[in-house]
Every structure is written in C-alpha cells, then in structure tokens.
Amino acid sequence: MADRIRLAKQAEGTGGVYLRPGREAAVLRRLVARHQGPFPRRVLVRLWREIFSVSVSMQGRITLAVWMPERGAGYLELARNQFGSFTSGTVHQSVGQVVQEVGEGRATVGVVPLPRPEDAIAWWPALMSTLPGTPRVIVRLPVTGGRNGLEALVIAALDPEPSAGEDRSLLGLETGPDLSRTGLLDSLRANGFDPLAVLDARAQGEDVRLTLIEVRGPVLRDDARLQGLQGGHHSPVQHAVVIGTYALPFTDAELDGP
Asked: Looking at 50-108, which runs of residues are DSSP E strands?
C-alpha cells in the first residue's frame, strides 16, 4: 500500500505517467545477463527501451524537453532512444528552460548535459530546492554507454528509485567558501558516503559555495546519512540535497563481449 501511495504521488508530478527508471534498469540488467546467441545485446536493449516507452505512454502522454545548443547536437537522439522514437517533445537552447519546463509540468522529462566546471551557467543548483515538484536526476544517458562520447542526464519531477544494481547518486552541498575539497570529502566519508568525483563547484555570493558530488550507491531523500552530514553545529555542510540517483549505463564489455 505504501508503494502504491508513493507511486500515485509521483505520477501527479509527471502528468499521471508512472515512470520507473530503477525498475527498468534492473529488468535490462537481467535480460542482458541471461542473453545467449548471436542477437546483439545493444539491439536487445534498444528493443526493450521501445517496449518500455510504449507501455508507459499507454498510461498517459509523455513529453520531452531537450537541450539542443545547436542543430544536430545529438541530445534529441539520446532522448528518443530512451523514451521512444515517436515521443513528442520540444528543444531548447537554454538548459535552464529545460529545467523550467519540467519543474512547471509542461514536460514529463527533460534531457540536460552533464555538469561541467567550465559551463558559464550551471543548471544543477536549481535542483537543490526541497519544494514539491522540483526535478530530480533519474537516468544517465545513453543506457548503452557513451560510445560516441555524448552523454546526458534525464530529469523528472519525481523521487529517484534505486535499481538494485550499480547505482550512482548526485548530492548538492552548501558550505562556507573556505572549506577545502579535502575537508568536504572527509566529511562525506565520515558520514558513510563513498564520494567518487567533485563534478562542479560554484560560489553563491561571498559566504556560500555550492558543490555537486557524485557518490557510490543510491541515496534517497530520507537517508539518515544526510541528517548526520548537515546535523551538527560544527558541521561544515549547512545544507545537503539528493539531486538524483541513477543506474550506471552498460559498459561496452557488457554489451559487446562474448
């Protein structure tokens, strides 16, 4: 019953569409693991992505908001490989507009670039809000691995779910401006996190720094470790938000190996 209530609330934020990215990732993992014969695993995953997309679209209309800085950038192809070849959507030169489309309910999901320190404007601080309907990262694209180097993240107005496999989570952390990277990573480890990478850091005025960290494993919004991380009076972290959780994409070895 609790799961049904949770899914119903999440569907309210996605136009009545029940998105289950963690479950879909787990199904694909099982299919690839037990697959035998000459049929390419990449094609198998692609076929099942279409099946998932049709199944979800029968519940309600899925709409995409896709970042496209220039024509032919490839992000629309990534989106349709994940959500179906005929799924409708809009493209936007501003990644902030993509986040806004999802947050205001005009799009079911958004496709945004991976955060980079060299970006002039960062989109991920907008996901540090704890207000209902704030988008969260739910998928990393492409699920078949980034063979051509192009990768992206999927956002939706729902809580991420673990895949029961190899997951990664993104944490948005608010600290003072003088905290070193080493000090921040040490604080994460002391509270039970396994930090893998500092993806970006941005000054917010003179007194605040926002940092985006990738950690190993799923982290849900009620994770007790978050309270420990930001709970103490002397804690260097004033605010910690789970920006998203996603299953790791397949590797080339998993899809092309014997």
From this structure: 63-67, 88-92
* Higher local confidence (pLDDT), 145 or 237: 237
Beta bridge partners of 168: 216, 246
Radius of gyration for the chain, computed over Cα atoms and rounded to the nearest angstrom? 18
pLDDT band for 15, please (50, 70, 90 cuts).
low
Task: State whether the Cα torsion 220-226-227-228 is positive or negative.
Answer: positive
Domains of the chain in sequence order: 2-159 (3.40.190.10), 168-244 (3.30.70.260)
Six-digit token pair at 177?
A: 């401006």
Give pTM, 2 decimals: 0.90
Helices (H) and strands (E) in the chain, counts: 8, 9
Confidence of residue 120 (pLDDT cuts 50, 70, 90): confident
Q: What is the residue whose two structure tokens read 């220039």?
A: 70
Tokens of 144: 């078949």
E strand segments, the chain: 63-67, 88-92, 109-113, 136-141, 152-156, 167-175, 195-204, 208-216, 237-247
Q: Read off the DSSP letter of residue 233.
A: T
**Angle between helix 21-34 and 41-57 (nearest 10):** 150
Predicted local distance difference test score (pLDDT) of residue 40: 94
